[in-house]
Design a protein that fits this description.
Elements (H helix, E strand, L loop, with lengths): L3 H24 L4 E8 L9 H11 L3 E4 L6 E2 L2 E2 L5 H6 L7 H12 L4 E4 L7 H24 L5 H20 L4 H4 L2 H15 L1 H8 L7 H27 L5 E7 L3 H8 L8 E3 L2 H6 L7
Length: 289
């Protein structure tokens, strides 16, 4: 009987240590495995629904984050639209490649969660059409001003450098998804975005022929930064809400470098491990569908 209090004390210490260990495990979840797949939304001869579906199947993600907003995807599923598949087959409704590939994968693996990470843009189709029209007109005017010799020497050099790297990038948009996602191309995208935010913005502000584009271009560049910040915050929320999951982020190629740089931050190391696409395809998980 004399040893009973000591025995009870040992049991209490053991329980406390067990609780501390358990809480430590809960407080430090395993990082998610994250793969970023940059794409061309409307595809090309090599980037098709089928080719993207094959990559998704090899990665076999638990979660797919898509560049859409919550009006398109809810409760881990793309909202059903009556007649959508027929309209796509007839070419009436050209949904993005990743939209259709993710939907097909969901049919194969119902447990996968499809989630949106983009912000809501009112009248998105009109916004995209207007942006493309303005970008085309802006680029044509820039080229005309350059060809007419109106740029000073420094601006002409910056524009030449930008044009060369941008044309090389546009040429690679006709390649496969694997080649599109090479590390060197991601670096190229980062350089293009930097030049657009600085050199091209400066040139647009400083020449009379480009003044009609100045307000639009400033707003366009600022909105890009605002959208990138919002996208990263939504991705962070998904990472924070999950542990030890395989997460595939499918995004337009121009967003890839911003997302990648965000995920490489030291403070996110406990939430995710970034895996290059090529590595993920070399060591695919075992499919469970």
């Amino acid at each position: 009987m004399a040893y009973k209090p000591y025995s009870n004390w040992i049991k209490l210490v053991t329980i406390i240590l067990f609780m501390i260990a358990t809480n430590a495990v809960i407080a430090e979840p395993s990082p998610n495995r994250v793969i970023i797949l940059g794409t061309k939304h409307n595809g090309n001869k090599l980037v098709t629904v089928g080719s993207m579906l094959q990559i998704i199947k090899r990665i076999n993600p638990d979660i797919i984050l898509l560049e859409f907003d919550s009006s398109v995807i809810k409760n881990c599923t793309i909202n059903k639209v009556w007649g959508a598949k027929t309209a796509e087959f007839l070419g009436v409704w050209n949904n993005p490649i990743e939209y259709r590939a993710a939907r097909k994968f969901k049919e194969l693996k119902d447990s996968v969660c499809l989630a949106p990470f983009d912000i809501y843009i009112p009248n998105r189709k009109n916004y995209i059409s207007y942006t493309r029209l303005m970008e085309k007109s802006h680029q044509e005017t820039l080229l005309r001003v350059y060809n007419e010799g109106l740029l000073n020497a420094g601006d002409a050099e910056d524009f030449t450098s930008y044009t060369n790297i941008n044309n090389a990038f546009l040429g690679l948009l006709d390649s496969s998804l694997v080649r599109m996602n090479s590390p060197s191309l991601t670096d190229t995208i980062q350089t293009i975005i930097y030049k657009e935010k600085h050199a091209i913005r400066r040139i647009t502000m400083n020449y009379p022929s480009l003044q009609p584009f100045s307000n639009w271009y400033n707003a366009h560049v600022d909105f890009w930064d605002e959208r990138s910040d919002a996208i990263n915050k939504k991705i962070w929320k998904e990472l924070n809400a999950n542990s030890n999951k395989t997460i595939l982020i499918i995004t337009g190629l121009l967003h890839k470098s911003d997302i990648e740089n965000f995920l490489k931050r030291k403070e996110l190391a406990s939430l995710c491990t970034l895996i290059p696409l090529q590595e993920a395809l070399l060591n695919p998980p075992i499919a469970d569908f």
